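Sat 14:20. Reprocessing the chain from the morning session after the first attempt stalled halfway. Input below, unchanged.
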Amino acid sequence: MGNTNQNSGQSEQSSSSSLPIDSNQKSKIQIDDNELKNRLTPIQYAVTQLKATERPFTSEYYKHRDSGEYICIVCEQKLFASDSKFPTECGWPAFKQPVQQDNVALTEDLSHNMIRTEVTCSSCNAHLGHVFDDGPYPKRTRYCINSAALKFIKKIPK
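Finished this time. Tokens:
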């Protein structure tokens, strides 16, 4: 991820997803940087705005199993459903797919001498994590996402 990484272990492998990459990604909404610094925690700001990475196995949603939706911490766009989350040993929450493919944007990331695919929120351009092609069958995608980029909305039973 960026130079502010606390640990770059999120993707020691040089894996790149076969998903289409959007090289013309543009933020739809603009949020004042000072407002973000005041509203987000230091790690939320570092992850979403500076492309930092949480330390593995320490994040809030890594082993989280409640039913609901994970939304963007910056703009509250729906990103991932709990039924898409799966257990993994990578150290971060992992999802099979987003709620809607166009809710995330994918861009090539050549940082840290690796070839990876960065995942950002398509609405506000917040950095979320990376996507890899080593997930469960049949699609094999693993969206490896920082908890600090997410907010969980628990599903209320009917």
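The first strand starts at residue 68 and ends at 72.
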